[in-house]
Amino acid sequence: MGEYFLRRILFMVPTFIGITLVIFVVINLAPGGPIEQMLSQMRFGGEIAGVASEGSLTGTAGEGVNEEILAELRKQYGFDKPLLVRYGIWLLNLARLDFGLSFVYDEPAIDVIVDKMPVSLQFGVASFFITYLICIPLGIGKAVADGSLFDTATSVIVFVGYSVTPLMLGILLIVLFGGGSFLDWFPIFGQVSDLYDELGFWGRVGDRLHHFVLPLICYLITNFATLTLLMKNATLEEISKDYVVTARSKGLEERVVLLRHVLRNALIPIATGLGGFLGVFFVGNLFIEQIFSLDGMGLLFYNSLLARDYPVLLGILSLISIILMLGNLISDFLYVLIDPRIDFAH
What we know:
The protein is an all-alpha fold. It has two domains: about 20-95, no CATH class; about 110-340, MetI-like (MetI-like fold), CATH 1.10.3720.10. Helix content is about 70%, strand content about 0%. The protein has 14 helices and no strands. Helix 1 (about 1-30) packs across helix 4 and helix 5 (about 110-145) packs parallel to helix 14 (about 310-340). The longest helix is centred in the middle third of the chain and has 39 residues, at about 200-240. The chain is globular, with a radius of gyration of 26 Å. About 25% of the residues are buried. Mean pLDDT is about 80; it is low at about 45-60.
């Protein structure tokens, strides 16, 4: 088994190189790069008025710019080398956790990402654990009480929640509980109040939790229905198998049958999606962050995409790729932990 995981870890290296190569090429070949954006700003700002148009760059943004200015801009942004050479340099720098200098923030891209990461990470981690802690027992309960009033009522609630997008739910929560047309129970902007620094320890904890409630509900709604129904269906499938009938015929208590036999096998499909969940809570949610003014990874990725901030974009996508691969590796490990009979070595 150890050899299998070692092979998986080693195989992650060429996989990562392949993923980042595709990402690097697509991003750099996309139109409207940082040089074109800089030229547009210069042109509309009147900074290059009267410059001769000889040797101008093809396209509207480059009209009226001579070759010397273009060469200087290419050198400034590192575009004076062939594409694959630039990728090789970027990959070598990445081994030292050097993502390059952000075009927008004019500071190391890794520092920009690390600065924004805690916002998305805290909501993602909290929603991840709360979702699993609620959905797994709820899915088991729905399977045991399949067809009952409890199952029907919770299914209605789950499907209503599934049909509401985080964007619409966020607006609804603000209207209902954020001082809109009804109740003014929760703040709707930022993570802390203006007087946060003047509060004591427990006052700061309470203030953060107060700001935490509405965005967290929006984060929870994303995967709540999917995980609940997946757990219910997996439990129903296991309950109908012969080994459960045999365990019950031996006189085992229903609680023992469910927790010792059914739950272990029903958790296997849940472990499959763990890698995807890890990537989702890392990258954040653009709409939630915009609605509640949270300066996190989702908003950073969106703004970097608009500004063609390649070092930040590549840094975020690279980290997400690593996390997704690690998530899949953790899923395999959980398979073995849940059911020792699973052997990936064969």
